[in-house]
Amino acid sequence: MDGSFMAIGLYLVLLIVLAPLVGRYMFYIFERNTDAFEVRWLTRSGFDCQEQGIREYLKAIVALTILGILLLMIILMGQTYLPGNPLHYKGLSWDLAFNTAVSFVSNTNWQSYSGELQLSPLSQTVGLAVQNFISAAVGMAAAIAVFRGIANQNTHKLGNFWVDLTRGVLFILLPIACILALVLVSQGVPQTLAASQDVTLLSGIKSLVHVGDVASQVAIKQLGSNGGGFYGTNSSYPLENPTQLSNFLECFSIILLPASMIFTFGHYIRNYKHTRTLFITMTAFLVVWLLTTVGFQIEKDPSLLGLGLVDTQHWFGTESRFGPALTALWGVVTTATSSGSVNGMLDSMSILGGMMVLTNMLLGSLDFGGVGAGIYGLLVYILLTIFIAGLMSGRTPDYLGKRIGAYEIKWMIVAMLVMPLGVLLLSTIAWSWPGSHTAMFNHGAHGITEWLYAYTSAVGDNGSAFGGFAADMPIHNILLAIGMLIGRFGIMIPMLLIAANMAQKPKVTGVELPLSGPLFGGLLSSVIILVGGLSFLPVLVLGPVAEFLMMHA
């Protein structure tokens, strides 16, 4: 256990050291002058490098999203007739293909299937892995456009989406993913064009082991906060995560870019005290959530106390190679960043430990959110904090010298309603649908938690799941896909519209709320907990809280 806490300490130290450096690097990449390679590449692809306004930027994002969904559905449904299918897998049903396509294009990577048992190498590589890069780069590009809108003045331009997308893929995601993939290969993660391999187990029984280009897909799924695993059991599967070092690096890569985006934002607005306060606040959230969840995982399991066991910690569902503490670390990080990858079964965590990772998503996965999506989701709460502080003090709310008016407040409210309306409305529709309850493995309070977790994961663009929820049903595939689209664009579009409007405003001088220090950090934290958390308190009482009380009763 001491080794686990040392690993957690090293994890936090590396995050504090590397995030500012990577954030500065990303700022340099996105704001450097367009070179001849980019002009030639984009021109030959039918695009230009001219700066775009909000309409052109949004049209490009939507067009790429629709095209990605259609192409991926064709690959998944038609894999029976396509090459690269040596194990002769059948094509997915239309509803499962739609769910999977929306999932990967929206950077959610919810999986209602088991990858190695249902998808051909072509589908995994050309279909899913490509979208892992593109969907993460789209989130980064949208965040950069928001940064420019907030930082610039007297302009309606937000940059060029195709330039931002190209830079995000070629100069940030691709090189780091290649390095990580090589390290994972050195640890024993497969990277081969073969689809399977016959092996002889220690017992002498021959078995078929599914392999493929696992290392390259694991690298980008973690780095881009995608989360979709090559194997159905994700990073708890030994071939996807074989060693302590691979476990540490995979878990760390989940949070590296989302945390670094805060410092990238600081370079745009040139207010480093403000972004340091944001980073410290989010890191404090992470530490509190982590310590609480680890505490719940290493405490005595009340259901095992009467059995006379020496070790009664919550080992059920935990990968024994890593232990309860490191499984809790991964669970907190993956729900704090909208990644969704796992190295243990969240459904088998302690009751309150499972509630912590669920609550992490219900708050919007702000800490530190997905690549790009986290920081512009956090900006919604920042604007709300400044607006509430303005109401309390009688001041006109300003943010970084820009007045927050009725237009910003309107779209801010729209973004705030995405999580509560999306999660509660869609889960209620699914609950009322005839036959939908057959997806539940557990019933009662734990079944409610599984159900709520699934729809929270979809709308929160997370992708992780409580293992007992069998979602491969037409009604769940469709509603979960709708939830993913709502979660992806329900916050992205309002924030882009807010940023575009703020870009046209001049900066004003006057007294504004201090944006750095403990006062602002505490006020922001209070708004996140009160506004984000109270919306879901009743349903949490019906699920994990009720289950906990019944366990101790």
UniProtKB/TrEMBL annotation:
TM regions (residue ranges): 6-27, 60-82, 126-147, 168-189, 245-266, 278-298, 368-391, 411-431, 478-499, 519-542
Keyword annotations of the record: Cell membrane, Ion transport, Membrane, Potassium, Potassium transport, Transmembrane, Transmembrane helix, Transport
Compartments in which it is found: Cell membrane
Subcellular location, principal: membrane
InterPro entries according to UniProt: KdpA
Pfam family for this entry, one: KdpA
Single GO molecular function: potassium ion binding
Parts forming coiled coils: none
A GO CC term attached to the entry: plasma membrane
Keyword Transmembrane helix applies: yes
Topology of the protein relative to the lipid bilayer: Multi-pass membrane protein
Record note on quaternary structure: The system is composed of three essential subunits: KdpA, KdpB and KdpC.
Function description: Part of the high-affinity ATP-driven potassium transport (or Kdp) system, which catalyzes the hydrolysis of ATP coupled with the electrogenic transport of potassium into the cytoplasm. This subunit binds the extracellular potassium ions and delivers the ions to the membrane domain of KdpB through an intramembrane tunnel.
PANTHER family: POTASSIUM-TRANSPORTING ATPASE A CHAIN (PTHR30607), POTASSIUM-TRANSPORTING ATPASE POTASSIUM-BINDING SUBUNIT (PTHR30607:SF2)
Family: Belongs to the KdpA family.
Name recorded for this polypeptide: Potassium-transporting ATPase potassium-binding subunit
The gene coding this protein: kdpA
